[in-house]
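cron nightly-structures :: item 1 of 1
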Amino acid sequence: MICYELPLNERIRMLLRLEDLFDKIDFFSSRDTSFEHNTVLVALFEILDVTSRSDLKSDLLQELDKQRTMLEGLRSNPEVSEKALNHLLQDIRAAFRGLLDIPGRIGGHLRDDEWLMSVKQRMNIPGAACEFDLPAYHYWLNLTPEERREDLNGWITPFAPIRSGINIVLNILRNSGRNCGYTAVQGVFQQAGSEHQAHLLRLHISCEFPCIPEISANKYALNIRFVPWRSENKTEIYEEDIPFELTFCSL
């Protein structure tokens, strides 16, 4: 099965983008080559750009506090595991404290590093991170993997509270919905009503179908059409009945 996620507001869209960037950092920072460590820096700079255009810290603090209050109200519910509830509340409190301890703007430790910012400025120009453009960066890339990884960990670690908060919010969001099975008749599915007024849609489809979903949603209707994955015709539809699962997730 392939899962497609569609954020229905800008805040969730940003959280998903940051989650993807942090996952890339995890993967490539554990490798040893200079090409992979260069990719880590590129992802770090993208995180810096994404977070600079929003008040992410404040948004996460508000959402974590909201979720903590809601979860505390479940303590008397016999259908809720007290052990699991306490564990989640502990994670929320730890992430909340970590966010409060971040001094100033997110990524300020990177912005205060003149060498890193000079590298970032050059990387904004396509192909401008060659050794003749950035000899100091070329020298860094030729350090041992252990030395580079030590620097990378120093640049990545201050983002830990942000990532923890994002993971908690997205996990709660993804687990908030219930999977429902539907069929797109001749590649088209439509639904009217208020059920789809969610923050995130998750669509699961078998990889046996060589098509991708195009989803549009607003407070009045949900429209999904499946198109051949390499179609050059924007109006072409994959004209077979396609079973799929859909989850409406809300915070």
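cron nightly-structures :: done
Strands lie at 2-7, 180-184, 188-192, 200-205, 211-217, 221-228, 242-249.
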